[in-house]
# Entry
Amino acid sequence: MVRAGLGRPALLLLVGCAVLLVPVLNRLVPEGSAFHLEDRLVPLFGKYVAYAVLAVALDLVWGRAGILSLGHGAFFALGGYAMGMYLMRQIGPRGVYAHPVLPDFMVFLNWQELPWYWYGFDRFPFALAMVVLVPGTTAFLFGWLAFRSRVSGVYLSIITEALTYALMLAFFRNDMGFGGNNGLTDFKDILGFPIASADTRLGLYLATGVLLLLALAVAIHLRRSPLGRLLVAIRDGEPRARFLGHDTLRAKLFVWTLSAVLAGLAGALYVPQVGIINPSEFSPQASIEIAIWVAVGGRDTILGPVLGAFLVNGMKTWLTGAAPELWLFVLGGLFVLVTLVLPKGLVGIVELLPRGRAPAGGPAAEPAARPAEAAGG
# Structure
């Protein structure tokens, strides 16, 4: 919990101002200035914001409900593939093989007709519906089977990791019709706007920023709701919550599915900004990194997952360019350090600060705000 003294509206305003900093530096600061942000860097920050949404999504289930998922990268990738399929259908005859319907990789593999599961992806509303429904339905079915069987703890983490690994192996196959190892790339347009243009990239960044604010608003509302308090009870002692008559299955299934939908939306906005989606997004390592973002920033906080996503991925961008062989060691060391020294993450440092001292012989200092009134608590 954050004892920063900020109310929740002020917290959203702060994040909104931080999101707007990129377009301000990109468009309003002259190009000759040291503070000007080049057009090529806008998609990079857009990718970080998409990762922040993904971290908030995981924190809904891990931080609030105590469900550690090591497979949230699967929901992110499913949303990304749904958007990638729409973008591939927009290429049309402008592809390398100039086929009016089939994507280039299908022509290369001698596919004769479009698979049935590609139908409808030439229309954006259908693709957007699939961005929500595919990860949401997958999460619902998986969660219903797992939670109904009362699988929890490390066993649940293992089977979520198995889920994403199985999907990775499936999407690597050329006969699945999703581009195999190369995935989907070479996108041209989105909603009729050229993806490569600076205006489109900035628009995609702003759309991702709006999604981040919506995700934070959902997280804040959940924390204040009776459902949020029930999730904490489930996290701290599910058998007791069940014994008291609470429907823990429905509560866990709802937040699990909601989290997957947010992850899918983040993946959908990630893909047009980075220009590619391939099976590596399903890798267990990618899902483990998401958990590290949340742990570094601080579980069950508002700002923690966002800060963790930006910090860890900023370090990754810099280190993989400066010393790529060191990145995995730094990532592992960072996780160990946070686990041993800062179990509540970077946001937890605020709790270690003194609350204030009363002068000698004077009245006691004002008590700290209750957790429900704290900015991130």
